Amino acid sequence: MIMEDKWFTLKDGRKALLRNPKEEDIEGVLEYLRVSASETEFILRYPEECGKYTYEGEKKIFEEWNSSEYDFALVCLVDGKVAGNCQIRFNRNLKTKHRASIGIALTKEYWGLGIGTQMFEAMIEIAKSKPEVTQIELEFIEGNGRARALYEKMGFRIVAVHPNFIRLKNGKLLNEYLMVKEL
Ligand SMILES: CC(C)(COP(=O)(O)OP(=O)(O)OC[C@H]1O[C@@H](n2cnc3c(N)ncnc32)[C@H](O)[C@@H]1OP(=O)(O)O)[C@@H](O)C(=O)NCCC(=O)NCCS
Question: I need a surface site. Which of 56, 62, 83, 175 has the fewest CB within 10 A?
Fold first, then answer.
């Protein structure tokens, strides 16, 4: 699914662009995937696990996201650099097509500037354009207060906990929380 490009102003006054991912973003997205994995324990990959992401793989995924009615993805560009991306995925099966799920991450230099809020507003608008979708879902890892604050601000509430969802290299186990927003 695609949307019109959207410009907005960051909290620090810079202009940022939200749009569907294009081939020219691939190198920036590959870099963002590596960097973000090294900056937070709250996403599900370590930097050395990013080797599976390739130029050709991303190209195919971008084409799928932009052409499918079940996927909607955005990148945010600041001064031409990829700050992060988000996706909302709509279920295909009859019994689950009332539900959609969201993923989002930015590199650290762009946290707290309002990008997450803008991404959520765009994803929620797309979800609301599909009458069959009545519920959006997402997860966050225990301790990720910034993500939780954003999700609560956007109307999500915790409905379940998945114990010991990830184990860090130091052996520390962390729970995952499931949040839901009814539309
Ligand atoms: C979580 C994340 C997507 C949030 O996006 P963001 O652009 O930083 O969020 P925003 O700037 O729009 O802030 C949203 C809200 O978070 C809250 N917030 C801001 N800074 C915060 C902080 N330091 N601690 C807790 N909450 C904070 C505020 O309530 C803010 O709302 P406001 O702008 O109305 O005051 C982003 O920080 C990120 O990518 N983190 C690393 C990857 C990650 O954790 N992804 C989510 C995996 S579940």
Answer: 56
